[in-house]
């Protein structure tokens, strides 16, 4: 058997791209890393594997804790981690969702071609930067009062539709039609609402961005047709989350759970994994609050998308409807959802125990849901071909559109990667790159127009800071968890 | 009292030390500001805050969380932090102040939250040391 060892953690090769950390000590389940040899080298280079092992200690863990091909070190639970716990006898862990609840990506189509946009890049990037709030204290698109925040938390994109920030088509192309039925705004603290009210419709900063892209390659024509994608077409990608409201909600529940369920916490190897037992008051409250934050994040991305439509109208002097600017899909990266999965046995590992359907909290932290064709939770528009998945690359590399793969339900509880994954710290990035140089080289050599709040942000997000997104997508496609549909390449990028 | 930003693949870590707990915690808070922006102007008014928690790590967590909250609702970046920490009735209390630099005066990025991951608060021969990973 082929094995690899990193810092005393041994992985056994199950088959190509599947590595297993066998169960030992207090691990409740084994852990798996889905990676090629080269990606595994990078994953083994920081604390990702230890954090993945720690995640297996959560009560009710089912199957495996799984690290996606873009996994890297985070806090508590690794980024790129998927962990499913039993929804009746297990637990739910805010740290396994992350602070930025429903941080995610949405893609909007247009009927413009790259030729239509060429020559307008400077104007477009300036207009987007001026009209989409970003950075710290940049305000929002909507100045939310108390009632607005409550409505957003409970009704999600339905609220945006009523207020003229969405059209019915947007809801039909969003997961859950843009509204989580389990949302409980009363479970979100006033402190969180205070932080969210001035940030409704804002990018934030860090790795969040808005990018105009062109489609460069189509790999599966039938699926691309269903998604409305074709070569040379211009699309828009929006990456952001639930802003301070979501961050505060995670913080609030981490502390509440620590105080109420200290006995459970004492059994966990990392305080950041604090978890509420399924069925407890705090598990229910956190789930309701998290679902409300999911709604807030969807509305946040919806407001930005609608503002982008208005910017395009001004720059190209046409109505957004005539440019066919419609939502392709919106995916979440940081989420825990009650889902029914078939568990038991292990088809991938050759096990033959009976399989049964169970309701699980599927924690996806820095991972994307990837349901295959035919799944009832895939929106009707895409049910025959599978759920769209959007994998953003760095601002100097391609991004990908995938579809949920047939093997995803067995291997990853219906999940795949969420991006390229960081390779180096921001400190190292600033030592190795100079923002203005990165910006000029992207413009002059790759025809990518970047505008950011500061040069430091550009350096910290330089293409060289990220893993090879092509390799991440190759592994996802070969494993059959997310099938490659199309590739896009940046034209304009704004960063907070 | 001093702090240092330490590399972390996805986030930023702050290592700080001081002669007293208050100095050390304030140094971590200065590290939080430094993780947010590179150059800090001399503007802004001071404001006070007080936090109570059940243990030292919890106190440091809640103190930094409160600063992030104040930042978002006041629209200022808390810098030049000062703090004293004391034990009272089986709990820990921090009384602190910061100068709030208006967002308009500074180019800053969002530090989303404080984490418990790898957090350490330890007594040393010279005083105290603390280590905190921040989610950016």
Strand pairing plus helix content of chain B: what structural class?
A: alpha+beta
Largest interface: pair, residues per side: A-B, 47 and 40 residues
What would you report as the Rg of chain B, rounded to the nearest angstrom?
Answer: 14 Å
How many E strands of chain A?
A: 20
Please specify the SSE layout and strand pairing.
The complex is a heterodimer of chains A (496) and B (136).
Chain A: E1 3-6, E2 9-15, E3 18-21, E4 31-34, H1 37-43, H2 48-55, E5 61-75, E6 77-86, E7 91-92, E8 104-113, H3 114-117, H4 121-131, H5 146-155, H6 157-162, H7 168-172, H8 190-196, E9 209-218, H9 221-227, E10 233-240, H10 243-260, H11 262-266, E11 276-277, H12 281-316, E12 327-332, E13 334-343, E14 356-365, E15 368-369, E16 388-391, E17 399-404, H13 408-412, E18 415-416, H14 426-432, H15 435-446, E19 449-452, H16 455-460, H17 469-479, E20 482-495
Parallel strand pairs in A: 4-5, 19-20
Antiparallel strand pairs in A: 1-2, 2-3, 3-4, 5-6, 6-14, 7-11, 8-10, 8-12, 9-10, 9-20, 13-14, 15-18, 16-17, 17-20
Chain B: E1 2-7, E2 12-18, H1 21-36, E3 45-53, H2 56-74, E4 76-88, E5 91-102, E6 113-114, E7 120-123, E8 128-135
Summarize this, please?
In chain A, 33% of the residues lie in helices and 27% in strands.
Task: Provide a descriptive summary of the structure in words.
The complex is a heterodimer of chains A (496) and B (136). Chain A is of the alpha+beta class and 496 residues long. Chain A has helices at residues 37-43, 48-55, 114-117, 121-131, 146-155, 157-162, 168-172, 190-196, 221-227, 243-260, 262-266, 281-316, 408-412, 426-432, 435-446, 455-460, 469-479, and strands at residues 3-6, 9-15, 18-21, 31-34, 61-75, 77-86, 91-92, 104-113, 209-218, 233-240, 276-277, 327-332, 334-343, 356-365, 368-369, 388-391, 399-404, 415-416, 449-452, 482-495. In chain B, the strands form 2 sheets. In chain B, strands 1, 2, 6, 7 and 8 form a 5-stranded antiparallel beta sheet that branches. A 3-stranded antiparallel beta sheet of chain B has the order 3-5-4. Chain B has helices spanning 21-36, 56-74, and strands at 2-7, 12-18, 45-53, 76-88, 91-102, 113-114, 120-123, 128-135. The longest helix of chain B is centred in the middle third of the chain and has 19 residues, at 56-74. The model of chain B has no long low-confidence stretch (mean pLDDT 95). Chain B has 2 helices and 8 strands; from the N terminus they run ββαβαβββββ. Chain B starts with a strand and ends with a strand. In chain B, strand 1 (2-7) and strand 2 (12-18) form a beta hairpin. The A-B interface holds A 46, 72-76, 79, 95, 98-100, 135-137, 191, 194-195, 198-199, 204-206, 244, 247-248, 250-251, 254-255, 258-259, 270-272, 274, 422-428, 453-454, 456-457, 496 and B 5-12, 36, 38, 54, 57-58, 61-62, 65, 68-69, 71-73, 75, 77, 103-104, 107-110, 112-119, 133, 135-136.
């Amino acid at each position: 058997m082929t094995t690899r060892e990193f810092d005393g953690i041994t992985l056994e090769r199950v088959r190509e791209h599947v590595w297993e950390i066998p169960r030992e000590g207090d691990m409740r389940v084994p852990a798996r890393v889905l990676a090629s040899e080269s990606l595994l080298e990078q994953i083994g280079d920081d604390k990702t594997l230890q954090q993945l092992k720690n995640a297996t200690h959560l009560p009710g863990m089912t199957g495996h804790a799984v690290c996606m091909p873009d996994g890297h070190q985070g806090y508590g639970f690794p980024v790129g981690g998927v962990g499913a716990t039993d929804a009746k006898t297990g637990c739910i862990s805010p740290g396994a969702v992350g602070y930025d609840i429903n941080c995610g990506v949405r893609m909007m189509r247009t009927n413009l071609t790259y030729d239509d946009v060429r020559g307008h890049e400077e104007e477009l990037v300036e207009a987007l930067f001026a009209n989409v709030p970003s950075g710290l204290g940049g305000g929002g698109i909507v100045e939310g009062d108390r009632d607005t925040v409550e409505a957003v938390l409970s009704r999600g994109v339905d609220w945006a539709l009523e207020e003229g920030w969405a059209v019915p088509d947007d809801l039909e192309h969003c997961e859950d039609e843009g509204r989580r039925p389990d949302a409980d705004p009363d479970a979100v603290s006033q402190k969180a609402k205070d932080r969210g009210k001035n940030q409704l419709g804002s990018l934030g900063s860090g790795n969040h961005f808005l990018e105009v892209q062109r489609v460069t390659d189509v790999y599966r024509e039938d699926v691309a047709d269903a998604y409305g994608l074709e070569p040379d077409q211009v699309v828009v990608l929006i990456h952001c989350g639930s802003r301070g409201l979501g961050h505060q909600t995670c913080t609030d529940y981490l502390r509440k759970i620590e105080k109420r369920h200290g006995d459970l916490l004492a059994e966990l190897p990392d305080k950041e994994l604090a978890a509420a037992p399924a069925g407890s008051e705090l598990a229910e409250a956190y789930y309701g609050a998290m679902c409300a934050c999911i709604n807030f994040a969807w509305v946040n991305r919806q407001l930005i998308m609608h503002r982008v439509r208005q910017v395009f109208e001004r720059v190209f002097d046409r109505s957004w409807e005539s440019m066919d600017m419609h939502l392709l899909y919106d995916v979440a990266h940081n989420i825990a959802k009650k889902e029914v999965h078939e568990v038991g046995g292990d088809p991938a590992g050759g096990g033959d125990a009976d399989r049964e359907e169970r309701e699980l909290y599927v924690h996806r932290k820095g991972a994307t849901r990837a349901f295959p064709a035919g799944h009832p939770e895939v929106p009707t528009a895409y049910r025959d071909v599978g759920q769209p998945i959007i994998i953003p690359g760095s601002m100097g590399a391609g991004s990908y559109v995938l579809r949920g793969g047939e093997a995803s339900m067995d291997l990853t509880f219906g999940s795949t990667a969420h991006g390229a994954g960081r390779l180096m710290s921001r400190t190292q990035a600033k030592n190795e790159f100079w923002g203005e140089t990165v910006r000029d080289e992207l413009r002059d050599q790759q025809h990518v127009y970047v505008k950011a709040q500061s040069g430091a942000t550009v350096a910290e997000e330089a293409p060289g800071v990220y893993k090879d997104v092509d390799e991440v997508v190759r592994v996802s496609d070969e494993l059959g968890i997310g099938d490659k549909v199309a590739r896009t390449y940046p034209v304009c990028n704004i960063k907070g | 009292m001093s702090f240092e930003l330490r590399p972390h693949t996805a986030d930023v870590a702050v290592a700080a030390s001081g002669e007293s707990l208050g100095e050390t915690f304030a140094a971590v808070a200065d590290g939080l500001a430094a993780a947010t922006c590179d150059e800090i102007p001399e503007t802004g008014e001071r404001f006070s805050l007080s936090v109570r928690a059940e243990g030292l790590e919890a106190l440091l967590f809640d103190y930094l969380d409160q600063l992030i909250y104040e930042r978002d609702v006041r629209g200022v970046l808390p810098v030049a932090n000062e703090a004293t920490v004391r034990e009272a009735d089986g709990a820990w209390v921090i009384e602190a102040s910061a100068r709030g630099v208006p967002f308009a005066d500074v180019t800053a990025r969002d530090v989303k939250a404080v984490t418990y991951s790898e957090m350490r608060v330890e007594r040393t021969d010279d005083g105290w040391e603390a280590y905190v990973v921040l989610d950016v």
